[in-house]
Amino acid sequence: MTQPPLVALTGGTGFVGQATREALAARGVRVRALARSIPAERGDIEWVQGGLSDNEALARLVAGVDAVVHVAGLTNAPDTAAFEVANVDGTRNLLAAAEQAGVARFVCVSSLSAREPQLSAYGASKERAERLVMESDRDWTVVRPPAVYGPRDRDMFELFRMAKLGIVPVPPPGHVSLIHVDDLAALLAALIPGGEAVSGKLFEPDDGHPGGLTHVEMALLIGEAVGKRPLVLSLPKAILLLGARIDRLVRGTGARLTPDRVGYMTHPDWVARPAFHVPPSVWRPHIPTADGLAATARWYRAQGWL
Questions:
Q1: Which among 31, 66, 251, 282 has most CB atoms closer than 10 A?
Q2: What architecture is the 6-148+179-207+272-285 domain classified under in CATH?
């Protein structure tokens, strides 16, 4: 009897990683996941303790696997060096381990911010990580998600919390695409086999909403999800930078709004481009924006977050 494929997963305890574990399990795929701290409830996952700078742990992670799904990445940091170590050096180390182990298939989760690397240290680090993957001799696919939302997420939660309070500050006028974490996870699972339609390709998936949403439309939909009609304030970049300084004073290194994030938040076009959509024969989104936001709000309420 043929064994189901074994996939090495990084970032398996994070927001996207947890959903990816579930999507892979639903397809009958075996998962070996890397984590600095192994969860108390291990489930059916084979865990490897370590990080992306631990070459011995990476060797154990990729030994005998059929594919690597690289989800782990640092999205928020107080300095540029931290992004470089986590996102660039970490990807380089993982690629080297995959090559040493003879693992051909490599699926890398990047970010739409890599499209404009000059705007932020985060986006620049993801763009450099992409280039490492694309210049390797792996059978690669790179996925650039737009804003990802869904249960467990703490970044978009800030907007839900503000909407519940009746006021949502947003960046200057612009458009943004969204994707529900479960749709993104389903895409990553669908990419495991590789093939002509996906190998050596860069994808920008979204939730199927053509042209994305304006910042105001997104805020109003989040308000609808929490049962409010919030006041939406489009704030200029200078005010957002001031807010970032205040957030740093209040929450220190745990600040959610940073100058680096302001750099890419204020860009007017974070819409997934149709030319980089995933072929429908491989994957298509199933969670409409309004439905997904409403379900996410229900999860937040159930957890006592809202």
A1: 31
A2: 3-Layer(aba) Sandwich (3.40)
Structure tokens at 96: 């080297």
**How many CB atoms are located within 10 Å of the residue 274 CB?**
10
The catalytic position among 122, 149, 264, 300 is: 122
Distance, CA of 97 to CA of 124 (rounded, Å): 23
Q: Strands 269-270 and 175-176: what pairing?
A: parallel
Active site residue 300: no
The helix or strand, by DSSP H or E, that contains position 200, with its residue range, turns out to be none
DSSP-assigned states of every residue in 24-57: HHHTT-EEEEEESS--S--TTPEEEE--TT-HHH
pLDDT at residue 169 above 90?
A: yes
DSSP H helix total and E strand total for the chain = 11, 14
* 110, HSE (Cβ side, Cα atoms, 13 Å): 30
**pTM exceeds 0.70 for this model:** yes
Spatial distance between the Cα atoms of 259 and 128, rounded to a whole number of angstroms: 20
CA 31/CA 83 separation, integer angstroms: 26
What's the confidence (pLDDT) of residue 244? Answer: 82
